Prior knowledge:
Blueprint lengths: L4 H10 L4 H12 L2 H24 L18 H13 L4 E5 L5 H12 L5 E4 L6 H7 L16 E4 L10 H7 L4 E7 L12 H14 L4 E5 L18 E5 L13 E5 L1 H11 L15 H31 L3 E3 L11 E4 L3 H13 L21 E4 L12 E5 L5 E5 L4 H17 L6
Helix pairs in contact: 3-4, 3-10, 5-9, 10-12, 11-12
Amino acid sequence: MSTTEQPLKDWYLSAGISEPVYDFCRQIQDGLQERFRQIDAMAEVNQMKVLRAMQNNRVSAACFESSTGYGYDDLGRETLEAVYAEIFQAESALVRPQITCGTHALTVALSAILRPGDELLSPVGKPYDTLEGVIGLKPDNPPGSLKEFGVNYAQVDLLSDGSFDFEGIRAALKENTKLVTIQRSKGYDPRPTLSVERIGELIAFVKSIKPDVICMVDNCYGEFVEEREPIQVGADLCVGSLIKNPGGGLAPIGGYIVGRQDLIDLCAYRLTAPGLGKEVGATLGVNRSFLQGLFLAPTVTAGALKGAIFAANVYEKLGFSVVPDSTEPRHDIIQAVTLGSAEGVIAFCKGIQAGSPVDSHVAPEPYAMPGYHSDVIMAAGAFVQGSSIELSADGPIEPPYAVYFQGGLTWYHARFGITMSLQYMLDAGLVTL
């Protein structure tokens, strides 16, 4: 045992981790060093990408200043958006604290581009729950859905092996198909996450049939996991949240949209007002957090990836179905674990909550959360509410009873959180070691 191993083990035991759980998880970790080395190498590539973009766009201390009111001539905001455009290899970017979340960013983009009579197509199956109300797929749609404004929706599911249904997509592309939305991550569906390469193949196929169609990628949870981003493989727009990967855990709010100049202009007009666009939008003191969080994002994302791989290996060895599996390449930070019972999902989430630095003394319970079609349990002892780049886990209380784990501002915290989730599962009699 190394000179640091026993003190570390003592800390774990003092936190309520039993010796069998600690030893089991430690053995799993010892077998992952080569995977972790590969993640660190990718993080260094992405760190250089971010660093050079900041240098090329002359980020300075003046960029940290705040603006109020209309927010005219905000140097920090304009520089931040130029940095995002360079990192994502886009013509333009909209990065704002006025965008409240990923769903809001997607809504801004969809509402900016689609008009009555247009059709929105998802060639990768059902979108994330919170987008159902935006599109108009719920029996009791809230006011203001795309459907209410005369926008049609079509969907082509993935095939049983997770591949694209190219013939189905070909048949679904119509004269009025204006925008194709591609959700990179899995949402509450334990399907494979789409790699940037696969996204590029899908976009190339769609544009070979209808060259003028706009391809938008929901990039949430995928930023800085790979060397390339979706704009580099043909996406016209790429959308995400700053309280996920690119905020680095420091952004207190916000979202981004990057892509073609003309489309970003439309999105800016929708976010503010026609004729105003990107010229207004006070930053209210968040520029420093946005820029510093972006600078840290590749390293923070790497820690979250290590946690996801660790979780996959722990729970797969215990006999649970995990997506991705313990050896697959990673294309986002989410790890799905099918636990097979409501009790399993609840125990797992209670363990994650108990392992958090904030609100570790409270226990999450399932409840009817706005925008979701079933009761959902969410564990997130986070410094920023809802920040899923921080250690968190959630899932709907419905078959197949899968939990979705993500985040961890550091690998060390992710390791502890997963170890604590296993302890809670063991204490509930749901696993044996």
